[in-house]
Amino acid sequence: MASTAEAKALLQNHPVELPPEHVYFGPSETMQAVRQKVYRAAGLNVPILVLGESGTGKEVLARFIHERSPWHEGPFVKVNCPAIPGTLLESELFGFQKGAFTGANAAKPGRMEMAQGGTLFLDEIAELDASLQAKLLHVLQDGHFTRIGDHEERRMDARVICATNRVLAKEIESGGFRADLFYRINVITLTLPALRDRREDIPYLVEYLREQFNRRFKREAGPVSKDVLQILHQRDWPGNIRELENCMARYVILGSEEAFHSDRHQQEKKPLSFAFELNEDGNIPLKRIAQQVTRRMEHDVILKVLQANHWNRRKAAEVLKISYRALLYKVRQAGLPAKRPLRKPDASPADLAGIDESSLLD
Ligand SMILES: Nc1ncnc2c1ncn2[C@@H]1O[C@H](COP(=O)(O)OP(=O)(O)OP(=O)(O)O)[C@@H](O)[C@H]1O
Ligand SMILES: [Mg+2]
């Protein structure tokens, strides 16, 4: 639900992710303990393992540690292990000499080398295959590595931070992860709690994110109401802070608490099933279906934005990052009213959308 079509459309030109130095810990005991440990560990030249579910902030924490470490003037080099296919990953990590393999037309340093004097962040470490696990273990034990196809030993001079959302103990038990590598990378472990396990931080995070996004999007969204805080407090947050962050970005951009409610509806909704129309010849033309889906989405998003901006179409066009003329055209195309409809006491968005132009306010 964090990535509803609505949010996607609105945030298309606004990356939500906050700059790396922004890590908000919150007053919960668990996060305060993490904070203390982070400050103690940042300066030590030992590997750090960051654990936590997806969206709990493993990467931002790694960057935060880097910024506060003696290696902060060096680079922060991230290796997203699962994103790089097996054999490529080895050359990405270690680099290669010219002619090391077909296609190696010139020597290339690996990310270990690029991280010299800085931090090497190995993300999703549990995804490393057995052979790379063995090679990494060797580097961490020995402090040296060699480029593929090379004889020269190079010193590994970077702080290593690893992260995973897997339970490594289980991976070791099933034989998916080497116990000896685990002991190497696990000198200091920082475990980030799931948001649902530190609900007391939610109001603080909401306030923190509201301020951040107000600044970023040049908005002035006020504090959220107690009712909304209550709703947010009760949610399970499977996407953790990433999900809350998206939610707050929508709120700030829309400038309306509608953002939270639409979000809740999205959560309750079944997955979108679109009853597409078959062509007379029985074909299913993908292009036409895509157009139909886009129109339907546009209708909903434009309606929400118009409602949130009290039918101020110039403002809505600005939020949607389209020209005023384009908005007028799309409003017509979507069959939406050109002006704010007369409010019925319990009018739903569908009622409002369907209302006939003759009953419009000036
Ligand atoms: N403590 C925090 N303070 C501020 N923002 C945070 C915090 N934790 C996470 N975030 C935000 O939540 C988003 C997800 O964070 P991050 O990418 O670090 O999570 P992750 O644990 O690495 O997730 P994944 O396992 O899916 O890669 C980011 O946009 C980040 O800015
Ligand atoms: Mg991550």
Helix and strand layout, with pairings?
Elements: H1 5-11, H2 29-41, E1 48-51, H3 58-67, E2 76-80, H4 86-94, E3 95-96, E4 108-109, H5 111-114, E5 119-123, H6 130-142, E6 144-145, E7 154-155, E8 159-164, H7 168-173, H8 179-185, E9 188-191, H9 202-217, H10 226-234, H11 240-254, H12 258-268, H13 286-308, H14 313-320, H15 324-333, H16 349-354
Parallel strand pairs: 1-8, 1-9, 2-5, 5-8
Antiparallel strand pairs: 3-4, 6-7
Helix pairs in contact: 1-13, 6-8, 9-11, 11-12, 14-15
Magnesium ion (MG) is lined by residues 58-59, 123.
Written account of the structure:
The chain has 362 residues and is α/β, with parallel strands linked by helices. It folds into three domains: 5-15 and 195-268, Helicase, Ruva Protein, domain 3, CATH 1.10.8.60; 29-191, P-loop containing nucleotide triphosphate hydrolases (Rossmann fold, 3-Layer(aba) Sandwich); 286-359, Arc Repressor Mutant, subunit A. It has 16 helices and nine strands. The strands form three sheets. Strands 2-5-8-1-9 form a five-stranded parallel beta sheet. Helix 1 (5-11) crosses helix 13, helix 11 (240-254) packs across helix 12 (258-268) and helix 14 (313-320) packs across helix 15 (324-333). It is globular and about 75 Å long. The relative contact order is 0.12. The structure holds adenosine-5'-triphosphate and magnesium ion. Adenosine-5'-triphosphate (ATP) binds next to helix 3 and helix 11.
